[in-house]
Amino acid sequence: MLLCVALPLAACGNNAQTGYYGAYSYAHPVYAQTSPQGYPQQPYAQPYPQQPAYAQPPAQSYAQQPYAYPTAPQAVPEAPYTLDSGDRLRVVVFGQEGLTTSYSVDASGHISMPLIGSVQARGLSPQQLAAQITTQLKNGYIREPHVAVEIEAYRPFFILGEVTYPGQYPYVANMSVETAVAIAGGFSPRAKRTAAELSRPYMGQLVKGTVPIQTLVRPGDTITIGERWF
Fold first, then answer.
1. Residues 6+ apart with CB under 8 A from 47
2. What pLDDT was estimated at residue 40?
3. Which of 157, 154, 160, 156 is nearest to 196 (CA)?
4. Confidence at residue 54, expressed as pLDDT on a 0 to 100 scale
5. Mind spelling out the 3-state secondary structure of the chain?
């Protein structure tokens, strides 16, 4: 009895077993070695081949970006004041009473003076016009002329749109868009009361921009008060 038990155990120890068709073995070349737990090792002796490293796309930042609020267009540019049609000037030629008087800039942008005739004024500052008159007077009329030019009255401004009395008005020094609206009788019931469109001659061109009503107005500006929709 003991002998019968010992023989199968010995056979099991050699991975062999006796069956109906004879003795056969479970040994396989791949499973020649066993794990410490007694189970045969898997046939993958080598690790999987390493896959090529693909370039990963850069991580996108989902940090909250500041919201860009819509802003009003840039205000019309500021530049030194230049003369234009509608300005009334006081020209003083020292020692020459016949030349010292008031002149208005006409529609063509000129003033007409004795001796020298028409003088271009549009686009010039008062100081530049004085230099221009001096140059022309030196040309055979006065040996050493001294000329000064002052502005007696500025050309008017214009206001259109949603005001009570749109039209042309005399310019007042240091006036704002709000002041111009008051001169024109105030806002209409449908007027946009926070901003206005301002058109201004600048370097030979007409520049437009949307400005707050506290913006200062210059002679010759055209103000348009828009209509609000709610």
1. none
2. 54
3. 160
4. 56
5. CHHHHHHHHHHHHCCEEEECCEEEECCCCCCCCECCCCCECCCCCCCCCCCCCCCCCCCCCCCCCCCCCCCCCCCCCCCCCCCCCCCEEEEEECCCCCCCEEEECCCCCEEEECCCEEEECCCCCHHHHHHHHHHHHHCCCCCCCCEEEEEEECCCEEEEECECCCEEECCCCCCEHHHHHHHCCCECCCECCCEEEEEEEECCEEEEEEEECCCECCCCCEEEECECCC
- Listed as ranges, residues in the chain with pLDDT below 70 are 1-78
Instruction: List, in order of start, the domains of the chain with CATH numbers.
Output: 88-153 (3.30.1950.10), 157-225 (3.10.560.10)
pLDDT value at position 204?
73
What pLDDT was estimated at residue 140? 86
What pLDDT sits at residue 201?
Answer: 82
- Provide the pLDDT for residue 13: 44
